[in-house]
Amino acid sequence: MAAALALISLGLGILLFRLNLTPQPLLKFASELSFTALCWMVFAVGVMIGTQRDVWRKVMQQRWKLILLPIGTILSSTLVAAFVGKLMGMSMTTGAAIGSACGWYSLSGVAVAKIWGAEAGLLAFAVNFLREIIAFGLVPVIAKQWRLAAIALCGATAADTTLPVIAKSTNPEGALIGLISGGIITASVPFVIAFLSSLAG
Amino acid sequence: MVWLVLALLIGIAVGSVFRLSEKALRLLDFSVLASLAFMLFGLGIEIAQNPKLQKTVNNHALSVFVLLASVSLASIFWGWILERGWAALWRQR
Q1: What is the ipTM of this complex?
Q2: Across chain B, which distance is largest between two alpha carbons, in Å?
Q3: Among A5, A22, A93, B6, which is least packed, fewest CB within 10 Å?
């Protein structure tokens, strides 16, 4: 249900704008209203985590997986994007930088443009932005079978925008794992991009 | 980011300190779904308003699609391996 709702809401926003049916105040404050809704969702997820007394103990039982999930997500995205980028005619560091952002489009767009040029920056922005969008649609489907796979798909966004979807599709324990994974990825991405820029010379 | 961290911490504190009724938790759960719909509606408007994104997707459709598919699949594969264990690779055959 969450997946269908996510796609319908997103599509409705685009459609109403294209048909010029979006009310003017909504158009002006779309970004602020979205952020307020996000803050409320993150607060609600926090309440759900807080009410589960044993959630921290359950999450800590995951031990090494808690660290391997974010590290592996960054490494797999970076390495695969490096090779795929090379096949598409980019330099390996450009592809790696695009993949290493793990969905953090605001940072990757600016950072990649500054180091690898405007075109690569736009590509980084588009790929990472669309990664977040497809996470909204796919997480509810994937999380039914493989919770960690769904969290890995969200990448850095698991700590903010896609956290409510993870919480809705799994349980408070899954939300906390997502929060930790997304937090570690968010903290690591600037260092990975800085490292890749040093390789690019 | 600061606001989100603050919202989360306040939420955890509220959930830990106050014993919320089942009805209140259900209402909160519903509010998450309603807020999600609202947030994505706003995001849809932002996408439609962003000509740069559309231009990039149109001009570099293949690169965007291939990179997006490969990083997404690689991440899903990593999560799947962690969840099922390396032995799952051989068990699948």
Answers
A1: 0.84
A2: 54
A3: B6
